[in-house]
Amino acid sequence: MENIFIKEAPTTPEVRFDFEEAYLEIKGVSIPEDTEEFYNPLIEAIEEYIKTEFPKEITLSFKLIYVNTSTSAVLGKMIKILEPIEGEDRVVNVNWYYEVEDEDMKDLGEDFNSFSKLNFDLIPCDEIN
To answer: Is the whole-model pTM more than 0.70?
Structure first.
């Protein structure tokens, strides 16, 4: 499967899906005008990847500074898509990075963790970069 790289823009995050390494990362600000237009191809790529490649371990890293409500819903959908494969001889790790003083992003990560059965790590950092 071909890797995906989308450069960060003022309203959309950087996306790096390295399918060979089974590492998916979304980083930056996510307030796209049309959330579905931006994220649907990424969701489709994840769905295709887990059907065709059968990776033993996948890491999904969120390094977000700010998200709008519609992005939050899409991120939850990504997590839910990966949840059913956990335990089929596969492991899904979710890394949720948040800046130490950003209680909102920490809380959002805790919310996702509370409804997910995946290996979920909340990782404080001084600055998302």
So the answer is: yes
Domain range holding 66? Answer: 4-125
Ranges of H-type helices in the chain:
35-52, 69-82, 103-115
Q: Is residue 125 within 8 Å of residue 113, measured between CB atoms?
A: no
Q: How far is CA 12 from CA 8, 29, 66, in A?
A: 6, 6, 10
Lowest mean pLDDT among 36-40, 64-68, 81-85: 81-85
**Per-residue model confidence as pLDDT tens digits over 68-97:** 999 999 999 999 999 888 776 889 999 999
C-alpha distances out from residue 104 to 15, 66, 67, Å: 22, 9, 10
Domain count of the fold of the chain = 1
CATH of the domain at 24: 3.30.750
Q: Are 35 and 71 in contact (CB under 8 A)?
A: yes
Nearest to 14 by CA among 27, 1, 32, 2: 27
